Model the fold of this input.
Amino acid sequence: MLNRITSRILEKDIVKDIHNVDSLMKTVLATKAPHLYYSYLQMQNASPKTSIDKFDKSKVLLPSEKDIWIFGYGSLVWKADFPYIAKLPGFITGYERKFYQNSIDHRGVPTFPGRVVTLVPTKDESSRVYGVAYRIAESNKDEVLKHLDYREKNGYDRCSLKFNVFDVNSTVNVIMYVANSDNDSFAGHISNENEIAEQIYRAVGPSGFNREYVYNLEEAMTSLFPGVEDHHLHNLVRLLRNFEVKDKEAIEKCISHMEQLTVDYGVNSEVLENEIVCLLLTFIERNK
Ligand SMILES: N[C@@H](CCC(=O)N[C@@H](CS)C(=O)NCC(=O)O)C(=O)O
Done:
């Protein structure tokens, strides 16, 4: 039965090399509806996880007064793929963290950008953006800045400001990367969180699924700063989780319908084959 289904789907040149319903679902969703593919993997507790903190901690780096500090408030909080001497939690003031930057090279592609964070200036003196400051050894400074200039190449510029170390009365001058509102990928004109969540939910890019970026940031911020509320971040996570609940229900219906059809119509039935092919393709169309 499955071979005949596969040949029908193959006619639509969607999938190759199918062995069972699970691989049929994975391959069809991964090629035609990646956001559903991520939800399907989550249902199997197999969702892809970016390995974070890729930095090799075996190298001992000695501090010097010519070291620099880099402030991370987005992916730099949970994905430090560069050598550093120290990592201090803390905050900066005068800005708000917002998912207002389109990502075409990490969490999206030019034809379907994802959303990542940047900082927008605010006059609210009480406003704080929590994150981490990394101490970079002078001997690694040029290499790390070159690496980050490339990583943040889509619209981010370096700037310097004061970082307040958490829980102690001390500050350090940091360099940070901010995507200002005049860059081509700035998307702050679309600030509705439902629209931003929709975009994130469907986006995937060379660095992985866009929603994984949001989940990793929330997980890192919650563990570093328990009790600190970032309404914008937490609301987006809530909206994304709601989308997943709806999709998981639809995927479960799709699978049980396919299994029921196998029971109702046996294995040699043109009806079953047509039904499954149509069901999968309609399901994908409806959930694009
Ligand atoms: N400058 C921000 C980083 C903003 C950001 O997340 N940049 C993206 C580039 S679009 C990134 O590095 N993404 C890596 C990833 O998505 O894994 C920070 O200090 O954390």
Remarks:
- Confidence is low (pLDDT under 50) at residues 14-18.
